[in-house]
Structure formats: C-alpha cells, structure tokens
Amino acid sequence: MTAQLEYDAQLAFKHPLGPVTVEDWLAADTPVDGSRLELILGYFTMTPPPTGFHQRLSFRLARAVDDALAAAGQNLEMLQAVGVRISTPFRTALIPDLVVVNADVHRTVFDPRNVLLAVEVWSPGNNRAERETKTAAYAAAGIPHLWLVEAPKGKPVSFTAYRLEDAKYVEVVHADNGETVTAPGPVPVEIDTAKLP
Predict the structure, then answer these.
(1) Which partner from 29, 84, 166, 194 sits 20 to 30 angstroms from 22, CA to CA?
(2) pTM of the model
(3) Total of domains in the chain
C-alpha cells in the first residue's frame, strides 16, 4: 500500500531567507575535513564528515544504481556527493549522497533539471526539520525520484523510494528488515536492504 508524503514545498519556504546566496555558496571554500557545506534558505549548514558506516552504505547503494544504469544501456551517470543548485530565489543548494544525472559530469554543481534521482542516507544527526526542508526542496526543484535510506545505529536499514506527483512525493516502495525491492527511478534498481550495511 502506498502512502503519500505530504511535504508541501510552500510550507518549507515560508521562512525568512538568510543573507547567503547560491553564488556565495559556490564561492565558499570546500571544508578540508570532509564536512559538507550546504545552503538551506539562505543559511550555511555544515554536516560533519560521514562515518565509515555511512560511506560504506552509500557506496553499496551507488554500486547497485551504477550497475543498473550500465545494464539498461542508458546515457545517464550516477555520482556521489555533488552539489545541486536547487533554487537561486530560495537560496538553497544541497549535496545529496547520490544523484543520477543526464548531463556532462565535468562539473561539481548540477542544475536540478539534470537530476533524475536524488538519494539521501539519513543518519541520527539529521533532525526532522532538516529532513523535511530538504525533501520539500527536492520536490520544489522538480526532481522526479527521491530515495531515502534510514541508517540508525544498531538497527536494520530501511529504504523508501518516492516518485514526484503534483509537486509532492508519493511513496512507491518501502523495504526494511532485510527485504528486497525493485526501486523505481530513471531505471529500475533492485535494492536488497540486507546487503546495504
């Protein structure tokens, strides 16, 4: 049974915008310690460097996506941790854990029109407000597919795939406790949650 994820993009943007622009974000120095510097509604947000567990999970997910793209023969690219210029007016630029793009890869920042899939691997440190704001931002940018992976310490990994419909994400598949599903996206991808951690 599918459930609708009711993240209204307008609610997320009824917030006073901060002073930092996308151009400021583009000009900012990349953190040397592996932290991710994102821009949310005009405010810099620094995420600590991912843990080894997070990186391993992200890599395994990336490998599954890359293998599916190669098997389908699509002219698409899977990339890890690249910038996406979500919205210049709303001063938002994010760094998803994975993206699938239909653009030349010789750049560090992509336009959301070229992003067909965004993937976020949530850790316990990602609070609810951050999660909701990012999800709403991806929807407002028109990114057609979003995958969210929950990776709580000491608990099974859960995976949920959403498709954009009428500017909202609708749940298409969900898996946890070692289940395997075929996730929709630019190409179908088999996800075995038992093999991600």
Answers:
(1) 166
(2) 0.90
(3) 1
Give bridge partners of residue 161 from the DSSP assignment.
Answer: 147, 173
Instruction: Give the C-alpha separation, 138 to 118, whole Å.
Output: 8
pLDDT digits (tens, 9 = 90+) for 11-57: 444 668 899 999 999 999 989 998 999 999 999 999 888 889 999 99
- The β-bridge partners of 40 are 43
Residues with Cβ within 8 Å of 44's Cβ and at least 6 positions away in sequence, in order, are: 20, 25, 28, 37, 38
- The type of residue at 58 is S
**Residue (of 164, 153, 193, 186) closest to 71 by Cα position:** 186
For residue 93, give the CATH number of its domain.
3.90.1570.10
Question: Using CA atoms, how far apart are residues 63 and 4, in angstroms rounded to an integer?
Answer: 28
- Cα–Cα–Cα angle for 155, 139, 100, rounded to 5 degrees: 70
